[in-house]
Amino acid sequence: MRFVVGVDAGGTSTRAVAVAADGTVLGTGRSGGANPNSHPPAEAAAHLVEAISTCLGELNPQEASACVVGMAGKSKLTDPAVTALFEATWKRLGLREVLVLTDAEVAFAAATTAPDGTVLIAGTGSIAGRIRARRMVSTVGGYGWLLGDEGSAYWLGREAVRATLSALERDGELGELATSVLSEAGIDGAGRHEAWQRLITVANADAPIRLARFAPLVSAAADAGPILDRAAGLLAGLALAAREPAESTPVVLVGSVLAGPVGDRVRARLSGLDVLTSDDGVYGAAWLAAVEAFGDSPSAPVRPVRA
After folding, report:
1. What are the structural domains, with CATH classification, of the chain?
2. Mind listing the pLDDT tens digit for each residue in 235-283?
3. Is the dihedral of CA 296, 299, 303, 304 positive or negative?
4. What is the DSSP string of 27-93?
5. DSSP 201-267
6. Phi/psi of residue 272, each to 5°?
7. What are the residues whose beta carbons fall under 8 Å from the beta carbon of 136, sequence distance 6 or more?
8. C-alpha 124, offset from chain centre
9. Can you say how many angstroms the Cα of residue 172 is from the centroid of all Cα atoms in its chain?
C-alpha cells in the first residue's frame, strides 16, 4: 500500500497522520511539543517518535513513500549536533524519505493548493512569509518577544498589563480589562498603589513569554478595542509587507490570535484579498508529502480526508 506521513511539530503538541494515496487517513498520533528551540532537542525527538509511531500502527514505515515534518523551530537544525539527532530519529522510526519544512509552510498548504501566496502567523509570536512553489522564500517579523512579535499573544498580554498599570496610576474606576488582568494575576482586593506594585512584581517574576496568558483577556474585554485595533494593524502590516505589490495570490491566516477579534480586524484590513484560514497543519504536511511522493498534477495527489 502506498501511503505518506505528515507531521505538525509545534511548541505545545505534535500531531502525525498516515494517509493513503487516495486520501484515506490510515492512522493518527499525538504527543508533546517537538519544537527543538523551546524544548530540549532530545525531548522534541522523543515526542516525534511517539506521535509518528502511534500514527503508523501496524503500517510498515519502509513502505512510506514520503514524510513531511512541519517543524516550529526548524532553524535549530542549523546546529550539526541537532541535525544528527533528528537524522538518527528518522532512522530509528524506519522512515526512508523525510523532508523537514517550517510550520508556516505546512500551515499554508493546509488552507490552499495554490503554490504561491502569503502566510501570516500570530500565536504566541508573530511572523509573515512569502510562499513560492510551496516554500517560504522570505519573511517579515518573527524576531521573538525581545525584538518584536508585534500583534502576537505575547504582545497583547504585555499591552494588557501596561494598560492596567496605566489605569492604576489614574483616578477613576478600573475598566473590564484592568479588573480581569488583576484577577488573572491574583491581585484581587489590593489597594490601588499596592496593586500597581504587585502587578509589576508578578509580571516580571515569570519568563517574559508568559505574558501571553493575558491575551485572552484582551479579546474578551469590552474596553480593549484600541489594543485589538493596534494589534490588527501591526499584523496586517506584516502580511502586506511580505507580499509583492498587486499580487493576487491568497493570504493564509494561522494561529490562535487570528481566530478571534484580532483576526476579524485583520480580515477587514485585508479586504479585497483572498484571505483563507488554516486550522490543521498536520493535513497540510500530509498533502505536501503526497506532492513529494506522487507528483503535482490536477488529479494527484488527493487531499487527505480529515478524520
Report:
1. 3-113+280-294 (3.30.420.40), 115-249 (3.30.420.40)
2. 999 999 999 887 889 999 998 899 999 999 999 999 999 999 987 789 9
3. negative
4. EEEEEE---TTTS-HHHHHHHHHHHHHHHHTTS-GGGEEEEEEEETTGGGGGSHHHHHHHHHHHHHH
5. HHHHHS-GGGGGGGHHHHHH-TT-HHHHHHHHHHHHHHHHHHSPTT--S-EEEESGGGGSHHHHHHH
6. 95, -15
7. 102, 104, 105, 119, 129, 130
8. 8
9. 39
Return the C-alpha cell found at 24.
Answer: 484515506
Measured over all CA atoms, what is the biggest interatomic distance in the chain, rounded to whole angstroms? Answer: 71
Q: What is the pLDDT of residue 298?
A: 46
Per-residue pLDDT at 307 = 52
Tell me the C-alpha distance between 287 and 112, whole Å.
10
Instruction: Provide the β-strand partners of residue 277.
Output: 253
How far apart, in whole angstroms, are the C-alpha atoms of residue 231 and residue 196?
A: 24
What span, in angstroms and rounded, lies between the C-alpha atoms of 182 and 175?
A: 11
Q: Which amino acid is at 57?
A: G
Put simply, whether the predicted model's pTM sits higher than 0.90 gets the answer: no
**pLDDT tier for residue 300 given thresholds of 50, 70 and 90:** very low
Q: What is the pLDDT of residues 64-109, one digit of tens each?
A: 999 999 988 888 888 999 999 999 999 999 998 899 999 889 999 9
Exposed/middle/buried for residue 71 (C-beta within 10 Å: 0-12, 13-18, 19+): buried
Grouping H, G, I as helix, E, B as strand and the rest as coil, residue 153 is: helix
Strands 98-102 and 64-71: parallel
